[in-house]
Structures are given as C-alpha cells and as structure tokens.
Write a structure and sequence with these properties.
Elements lengths: L1 H12 L19 H8 L11 E4 L9 E4 L6 E2 L6 E3 L6 E4 L40 E10 L2 E4 L7 E4 L3 E4 L6 E6 L4 E5 L6 E9 L2 H7 L4 E3 L13 E5 L8 E6 L6 E5 L14 E7 L3 E6 L2 E7 L16 E4 L12 E10 L5 H11 L2
Antiparallel strand pairs: 1-4, 2-5, 3-4, 6-7, 6-21, 7-8, 8-11, 9-10, 10-21, 11-20, 12-17, 12-21, 13-14, 14-15, 15-16, 17-18, 18-19
The structure holds calcium ion.
The site of calcium ion has 6 residues, from loops.
C-alpha cells in the first residue's frame, strides 16, 4: 500500500518535487496518514507529537481549488498553503464557482473531536498526544483473549464474554468488533460512575423485525449491582419504536420501589436504523439534562423530567454493566448483531463533539 501511495505521489509531483514536499492526494483527507508521516521523515504515526505536512495544491494547477482548514487548532497553515496537522486532523479543499467567483465550503477536512478518547489508539483532539486528559472509563474495541474482552482504555475494566460472543475483523475503521449471537449472548463488565456519563457505541443489527416482534427492545446495557439483585439497576436501551427501524432510547435508573424511566425521544422518532449497516448511538446525561444521538444527529436533547416521585438520574453505586440483553430476561430482545468501540466516558459529549466523532469514523 505504501509503495502504491508513493508511486502515486511521484506521479503527481512530476518534475518539481522540491516545491511540494508534502503533497497529499487532494481531498483524500482520511487516507494520507501513513504516507504523509513517512514523507515528513519522522518515522512515526499520528500522536507522536510532531506536526506533519498534510495537504498542498500545486500552485499553478487549478486556480479554482484551494486547500483549507476552518478550525484554529489541529492544523496550521493558510488557505492554499501546505497545512501541517497533528493526530486525526486533516486539511480539506474548497472549490471556486467559475461563474460567480465564490469559494465554496471547505470539504473533506477532519477537525478535532474536541476531547481525548483513551482506548481508540488515536489523538482525537489533535494536540500530539494519544492518551492525555481523557475521561474514558471503559473502551471495548473488540480485542478478545479467551473469554475476556480487553478494556483498551487502560483502566483494567476488562469484560467477560458469555453465551457466544465472539471477536471478528472488519469493524469501524478496520480492527476487531464484537459479534453477538442473540439469546444469552452478553458481555459483563465492572464499572462505577456517577451522575455525568456518556455511553457511545457503534452497532449493526441483523434482524430488526425479530427483535421488534419479541419485545420491541434492541439492546440493554447494564444493570444491577454486584450482588446481582433485580434492583437497583440502570440501562440504556434502544427501542425500535412503533415503526420498524425507528429508534428511541431510555435510561432506567435505581429506585427503591420501582425503577425510573427517562425516555430519550418519542416512539415516533424518525431516526432510522437499517439492518446490515453500522450506526452510532450516543447517550449523554447529567442530573439536569439528557440527550440521545443517532449517527451524529440529535434525536432527543432535553431537561431531565422527574418521572417517579423525586428520583433523579444518579448511577452512583452501580458496579456491573451488561452489554447485549436484559439480565432479568435474557431471552427477550437480545442482540443478534455487532458492537464496536463501546465506551463509557465521564465527559458529557457535546452535540458538536458527537457530530465530529461520527463524521470522522462513519463508514
Ligand atoms: Ca490528544
């Protein structure tokens, strides 16, 4: 692959390589990483702390194209110049309308996600460090050894596979993912967190109609303390909704006599899930606020309502998480499908951060 990229670069550079030392394939903002790093001569990949040339246009090639980058962090340079970028950040290209003379939007650029994720092996906030200041509590990228799935965040919260969960290759941006066989397939994991939480994961269903027919529930994440009693519990659920493929989410949180439900969106949500396609679900909540996003777009964003008495969202004391199905009803609505890059984060992701994350990783 590297040889092919270099050959392409040589072709593009033509007779004046000394004028364009960092030429990347224009507009491929996602694909040039390795070659760019190698051309920069630092012998390392993203996150090594060095700025690498990302993109430049031949100065006299097409007057209606120009390199661009619209954020003040992640890349340095000026429109039309060679941008130098760190981490996942990449410059883009803008085009000029030949009739009006107006420059269009900057296309293909990759901006900082805005915060660090620990466990994904990337410098997601483009500051030259892959693992600094992150609030990632757990990250399952899909690496499995025996019956254990590795917590890539480095926190040591490894998961335990049960009932036919396996690791497969070909997940989001390559690498492994977790495949669930339905029924009693699940991943148990130790976890503790408080009132501020983000739950983010990529998922791919294989039989939405069956899930809907069984219970109308897509997945349930977590519940129970380590004593494994029925309460308290917590859950983040995706519900196929009234129409097949539409989704909503909700949290169930601990309560003394009844669990409390905090819904994320109506059953008539127009957010669509399609079998065989990867989708991104993100739940965020504080005591006062909650939001649910599908594929980078907001489904629900609203103040937390008190549903039962004076109960509020508070996950303090929760010690066990479960991915794949309800612990108290393991055969109902269990996930038959795939999960990748499942993560819990005590940083409450903003809408802009969710969108940037989705745009960077979307298939
Ligand atoms: Ca970083």
């Amino acid at each position: 692959m590297k040889a092919l990229v270099l050959a392409l670069l040589v072709t593009l550079l033509g007779g004046c390589p000394e004028e364009q030392p960092g030429l990347d394939v224009i507009g491929d903002a996602k694909g040039g990483d390795a070659a760019v790093s190698d051309l920069a001569g630092d012998g390392a990949s993203d996150g090594d702390g060095k700025m690498v040339p990302d993109l430049v246009l031949p100065p006299d090639s097409d007057p209606n194209k120009m390199s661009c980058y619209t954020s003040s962090s992640g890349c340095t340079g000026t429109p039309g110049s060679v941008y130098k970028c760190q981490g996942i950040c990449r410059a883009g290209v803008m085009l000029r309308d030949k009739n009006t003379g107006q420059w269009g939007a900057c296309q293909g650029q990759v901006l900082s996600i805005g915060f660090e994720i620990c466990g994904d092996g990337r410098d997601t906030n483009c500051d030259g460090d892959k693992n600094q200041g992150c609030q990632t509590l757990i990250f399952f990228g899909g690496k499995v050894s025996g019956k254990t799935v590795t917590d890539d965040s480095g926190k040591g919260k490894h998961g335990t596979l049960q009932g036919g969960v396996s690791s497969k290759k070909g997940g989001i941006k390559g690498g492994e993912y977790l495949s669930f066989a339905g029924k009693k397939s699940r991943v148990n994991f130790p976890i503790a967190f408080g009132t501020n939480i983000t739950i983010a994961f990529w998922f791919r269903t294989s039989d939405l109609a069956k899930i809907k027919a069984e219970a109308g529930w897509l997945f349930v994440f977590g519940k129970n303390d380590s004593s494994n009693t029925s309460k308290p519990r917590w859950a983040a659920i995706i519900n196929p909704g009234l129409q097949l493929g539409t989704v909503r989410g909700w949290f169930e949180v601990p309560g003394s006599s009844h669990h409390q439900e905090f819904h994320f969106g109506a059953t008539t949500s127009s957010a669509l899930v399609i079998d065989g396609q990867w989708h991104l679900a993100v739940f965020t909540t504080t005591v006062a606020w909650r939001a649910f996003y599908l594929d980078g777009a907001v489904v629900t964003s609203e103040a937390n309502k008190i549903v039962y008495g004076s109960y509020k969202i508070d996950f303090s004391g929760v010690k066990l998480g479960v991915i794949g199905h309800r612990k108290d009803a393991p055969d109902v609505g269990a996930l038959k499908g795939d999960i990748d890059d499942f993560q819990l984060d005590s940083h409450v992701w903003t809408a802009a951060e969710v969108k940037s994350y989705y745009n960077f990783l979307k298939p």
